[in-house]
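Data card: per-record layout.
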Amino acid sequence: MKLWNKKAIVLSSGGIDSTTAMAIAKEEGYEIYSLSFNYGQRHSFELKKASEVANFFNAKEHLIIDIDLRKIGGSALTSDIEVPKNRSQKSEVRSQKLEINNSKLTTHNSQLTTIPITYVPARNTIFLSLALAWAEVLGVEDIFMGANAVDYSGYPDCRPEYISAFEKMANLATKAGVEGKSHIKIHTPLINLTKGEIIKKGISLGVDYSLTSSCYSPDKDGNPCGLCDSCQFRLKGFREAGVKDPLTYKQS
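The structure for this 252-residue chain is written out next.
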């Protein structure tokens, strides 16, 4: 049953995962409040696409919050560190779920996963915290994000354990939660899907992936490089889905 009076905040980067998560929220009957961040990322072109995606889904509001994470640095996305290219091939990154085993990140094939330099320190914690603040102001209980623990770069803040822990914290940390007026739910509908499965799901919901941008290192016109981790996973997903990627790549 669709709940057309329900509201949801959807974290949106303008990429495949967050756009598909927004499509799912829309299909489930939520009124969309899109939330994006201008955090000093080198691929700020994604914000233009996030705005287009918000318009596509008739979002009630698209809020872009400025945070200068370049002052902290520590990532190829927020500093002058070079974005790795062809890492998914050279490092033999595969579709895999991360598990916690004796406090170490390991893959299903028991190989140690190295978290790449494109990881932005505490990014999802920062983003979800601001989403939580906006949710409390709007009286929203549902927050959607496109976190994925299968076809991704191994970021620790994309794991189910992390999402569960944040949700628990969210309901302890807010006035609305303590007073029992709301119960925050972090929705991660893509957490256990491959990129190909995500794309198939989005297509079934009418998503126009030509509106999206995934590249960590696009050119000045926003054209994707085809070689960074994000491009590699995107291209892999479209191959698996048996659908042509609508974007034009500099290299692939």
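Known properties of this structure: The beta strands are 6-11, 30-38, 61-66, 99-101, 104-106, 142-144, 185-187. The two ends are 42 Å apart (CA to CA).

See the next section for split statistics.
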